[in-house]
Design brief:
- The chain is mainly α.
- It has two domains: about 15-140, Leucine-rich Repeat Variant, CATH 1.25.10.10; about 155-230, no CATH class.
- The chain is built from 15 helices and no strands.
- The protein has helices at about 20-25, 35-40, 45-55, 55-65, 75-85, 100-105, 110-120, 125-140, 145-150, 155-165, 165-180, 185-195, 195-205, 210-225, 230-254.
- Helix 8 (about 125-140) packs parallel to helix 11 (about 165-180) and helix 10 packs antiparallel against helix 11.
Length: about 250
């Protein structure tokens, strides 16, 4: 009789850093936990993966959501938004089957929470708004999230930041608008209708801001003004219709 093969033992889960576990456990009532998570999430892809594995994303979204944690301070919300911005950063390994936190943030209700923070007016601090715009910019690098961000009403407040926000807010807003408009005709049309082209054109020529901000505005303007996208889509649809008609005609000849 042949020997029975032994099945491979599953590798034990990698232990999570104790400081991360503690920060997640105390996030909703610990004054420094959100700041610790924001710091950890900025350390790189491995730590961002660990943050998600530790369950950091749902309570971070809860912390920035309106009226869910009444005792949360403005600084706690700033740090929570910063952590989500870092966790939403595009993972270069995502296309190779690795983790991607953006899906978990979207599934957990992160988009409406971030847009609410963005639209918070005097209830939101400058830093909260900056990080909310940055988080949306990172989420928008994934095409499947762009419609949800637009449907949540992000375009108007992002465009508003271009003209009235701080340089950091305007920079994040430009990157968000550029990502939302990239190869996405519906977003291009909505951003244009809301006055985005005019605002980005003015900012790209403004001499009183940094060169980096002007470059971000030019990037967004190129994406929003990509008029050839609609032409390419129409050509593709016409070709598909022609192919379908030819296939139907061939079927009739049989």
């Amino acid at each position: 009789m042949g020997k029975k093969g032994k099945g491979k033992k599953e590798a034990a889960p990698k232990p999570l850093p104790p400081e991360l576990v503690e920060a997640v456990a105390t996030l909703l009532d610990g004054p420094d936990a959100a700041a610790k998570l924001a710091s950890l999430a900025c350390e790189g892809d491995v730590m961002r993966q660990d943050c998600a594995a530790a369950g950091a994303i749902p309570p971070l979204i809860t912390l920035i959501s309106p009226n869910t944690v009444p005792q949360a301070t403005p600084v706690q919300k700033e740090n929570a938004a910063h952590a989500l911005r870092a966790l939403a950063a595009n993972n270069p390994l995502a296309n190779k089957g690795a983790y991607d936190n953006s899906d978990a943030i979207v599934a957990g209700g992160g988009i409406p929470a971030l847009v609410a923070l963005l639209r918070g007016g005097s209830a939101s601090t400058e830093t909260q708004v900056e990080h909310a715009a940055g988080a949306l910019a990172n989420l928008a690098t994934r095409q499947e999230h762009r419609k949800a961000i637009m449907d949540a009403g992000a375009a108007q407040p992002l465009i508003g930041l271009i003209g009235t926000g701080t340089e950091a807010q305007a920079s994040a807003a430009c990157l968000a608008l550029g990502s939302l408009a990239f190869s996405h005709a519906e977003s291009q049309a909505a951003i244009t209708q809301e006055g985005g082209v005019a605002a980005l054109t003015e900012l790209s020529a403004r001499v009183t801001c940094t060169e980096e901000l002007r470059e971000h505005a030019k990037y967004a303007l190129r994406q929003v003004s990509d008029t050839q996208l609609a032409e390419r889509r129409a050509a593709a649809e016409a070709a598909a219709a022609e192919a379908a008609a030819a296939a139907a005609a061939n079927e009739k000849k049989k």
